[in-house]
Amino acid sequence: MSGRKVPPTFSKQPVPRNARGFTLIELLLAMALLTMLVTALLTFVFSMGEIWGRGGDKRLFEQHVSAVTRHVESLLQHAAWPRPGAATDEPFAVSEVQTAVGAKSNLLGFELLDGDRLLDWPENPLPEVRCHLAQEQNRGLVLYWQSSLEKEAAQKPPRATVVSPLVTKLAYAYYDALGGSWRTEQTLRKNSSGEWVLPDRLVLSFKHGTYEDSRELTLPGGGGSPPSF
Question: Of 12, 56, 130, 165, which sits most exposed with the smallest number of CB within 10 A?
């Protein structure tokens, strides 16, 4: 019996307290906290997306208003450039125009020697384009145009290009040099002799849904004597 091997004995060590696993209650609490954090994060993300979307509509509206205002102002400035050999030094005039709605209207007109990118010609573009600005219901700001070099130009109605469908009003601001004040009118003015008086500024009113804006454009060489600012 003395030759039999005795198996080694192992002593049972106690499990350290910090090495035990999570209990079921702790797991449930952890999952509840995680769910609350994820819900709060998603709510924040969706709310910021909604706010950003609303702000995006307003920014697009403001960008459109600025772009249209700059382009119309550029048209007026180009029309006022000195032109050698021009029949008259006055680049702007009021004349009667056959509009697309079938009626004739007295509109503010100007001439563009080289045309403009908005003008969609059926053939090769022609120079010396006479343009007129109008505001029409359900159409917006409309540019009527026609080249004086077209065949039978006097017998043809001018073409129409919608500059902006968001323009709801085109008004005319006149400066009273004697009174030192401004007056905005919805139609072009005539003097006591029955002659048309050019406005000093054009006022464009824009509207899209709940967004509204108004911009003023100085007419080079207007009818009055506005202050220089």
Answer: 12
9 located within any domain: no
Q: Give the pLDDT confidence of 190-200 residue by residue, as tens digits.
A: 999 999 999 99
Query: Which residue range(s) make up the domain with 203?
Result: 71-218
Residue 174's φ and ψ, nearest 5 degrees, are: -115, 140
pLDDT number for residue 62: 94
| Helix or strand run (H / E) with residue 25 | helix 24-79
DSSP character string of 93-154: EEEEEE-TTS-EEEEEEEEETT--TT---SSS--SSEEEEEEEETTTEEEEEEEETTSTTTT
Burial of 100 (0-12, 13-18, 19+ CB in 10 A): middle
What is the tally of structural domains in the chain? Answer: 1
Taking 70 as the pLDDT cut, the residues of the chain under it are 1-22, 44-55, 84-89, 222-229
> To which residue do tokens 């125009």 refer?
97
In the structure encoding, which two tokens stand for residue 61, read together?
A: 């509206």
35 falls within a domain: no
Report pLDDT for 10: 53
139's CB contacts (< 8 A; 6+ apart) are 100, 162, 165
Instruction: Return the pLDDT at 17.
Output: 56
